[in-house]
């Protein structure tokens, strides 16, 4: 089989302008905020891969162990010769735990970071010569469509890493409902969901001793400088991550260390000392709570796997 990756450019043509407009809107808001999807330029994607290797960050290794143990059961649910769609594919490490067991005929990686996407899908194409590999450069948090050449095939959407937690629950429900609409009949969703647990475990995961998560958070300011020309000094900000128990979510912020003004062309964005720029939520769920959300989005929860410590869960959701 020809091992060239079939590339699908689904990124908006004015992505630079869209990024700038989102930044202007977020920095003008009260309180100030930016979407976590903007973390993932190439340096941010590399930093996230390092986060996944930190001992405090239980999410990655726990999910990998669950997937390895459940791969045969997952393959039986999915069936052979399907399309495997990985949302937020990143380095495509976890999907390797599924490929041999599932033996899909096609793989589609979807990611917002173009260079990272191409690197990871090219490695997959080289390592699995029997697999037809597609790559879609797209922001899957917007309206996603399966590209021509793969649309219509029975599919399973793989959404690992508890990235669903970056959506507020109502937005997560809407995202899953849209995903159900674009998947062919008799498809499914395999999704990793972080569970509610002890505050100390949660907060340690987002405040690793090596400071990688802090660097990842602060890299967002570097991206604003390099891509948009925002006049901002990252050293004037501190990383803050804490568990908001009332909302069942980790929150990440950048905290201004002094009174300062960020500048972007004609725009001015003043910040007071101690003022926060909200950069990410990571919502946590009970198993029952997430299954209820999935039902509201139109799915039938079919199977769930977890680890002995009940840190993390992987769900298989069937479409009607």
UniProtKB/TrEMBL annotation:
<dbReference type="InterPro" id="IPR051128">
    <property type="entry name" value="EgtD_Methyltrsf_superfamily"/>
</dbReference>
<dbReference type="InterPro" id="IPR017804">
    <property type="entry name" value="MeTrfase_EgtD-like"/>
</dbReference>
<dbReference type="InterPro" id="IPR035094">
    <property type="entry name" value="EgtD"/>
</dbReference>
<keyword id="KW-0808">Transferase</keyword>
<dbReference type="Pfam" id="PF10017">
    <property type="entry name" value="Methyltransf_33"/>
</dbReference>
<dbReference type="InterPro" id="IPR019257">
    <property type="entry name" value="MeTrfase_dom"/>
</dbReference>
<feature type="domain" description="Histidine-specific methyltransferase SAM-dependent">
    <location>
        <begin position="19"/>
        <end position="318"/>
    </location>
</feature>
<keyword id="KW-0489">Methyltransferase</keyword>
<protein>
    <submittedName>
        <fullName>Dimethylhistidine N-methyltransferase</fullName>
    </submittedName>
</protein>
<dbReference type="InterPro" id="IPR029063">
    <property type="entry name" value="SAM-dependent_MTases_sf"/>
</dbReference>
């Amino acid at each position: 089989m020809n091992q060239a990756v079939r590339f699908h450019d689904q990124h908006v043509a004015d992505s630079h302008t869209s990024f700038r407009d989102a930044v202007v809107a977020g920095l003008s808001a009260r309180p100030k905020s930016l979407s976590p999807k903007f973390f993932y330029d190439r340096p941010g994607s590399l930093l996230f891969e390092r986060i996944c290797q930190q001992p405090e960050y239980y999410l990655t290794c726990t999910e990998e162990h669950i997937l390895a143990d459940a791969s045969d059961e997952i393959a039986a649910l999915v069936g052979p010769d399907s399309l495997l769609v990985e949302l937020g594919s990143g380095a495509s490490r976890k999907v390797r735990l599924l490929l041999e067991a599932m033996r899909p005929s096609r793989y589609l990686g979807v990611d917002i970071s173009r260079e990272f996407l191409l690197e990871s899908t090219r490695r997959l194409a080289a390592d699995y010569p029997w697999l037809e590999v597609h790559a879609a450069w797209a922001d899957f948090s917007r309206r996603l469509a399966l590209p021509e050449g793969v649309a219509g095939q029975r599919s399973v959407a793989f959404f690992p890493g508890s990235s669903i937690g970056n959506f507020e629950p109502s937005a997560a429900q809407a995202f899953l409902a849209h995903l159900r609409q674009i998947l062919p009949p008799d498809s499914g969703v395999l999704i990793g969901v972080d569970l509610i647990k002890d505050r100390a475990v949660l907060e340690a995961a987002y405040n690793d001793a090596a400071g990688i998560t802090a660097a990842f958070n602060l890299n967002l300011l570097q991206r604003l400088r390099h891509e948009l020309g925002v006049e901002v000094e990252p050293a004037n900000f501190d990383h803050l991550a804490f568990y908001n128990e009332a909302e069942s979510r980790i929150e990440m912020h950048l905290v201004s260390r002094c009174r300062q003004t960020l500048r972007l062309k004609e725009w001015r964005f003043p910040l007071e000392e101690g003022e926060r720029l909200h950069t990410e939520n990571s919502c946590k769920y009970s198993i029952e709570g997430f299954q209820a959300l999935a039902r509201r989005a139109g799915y039938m929860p079919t199977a769930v796997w977890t680890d002995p410590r009940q840190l993390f869960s992987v769900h298989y959701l069937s479409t009607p």
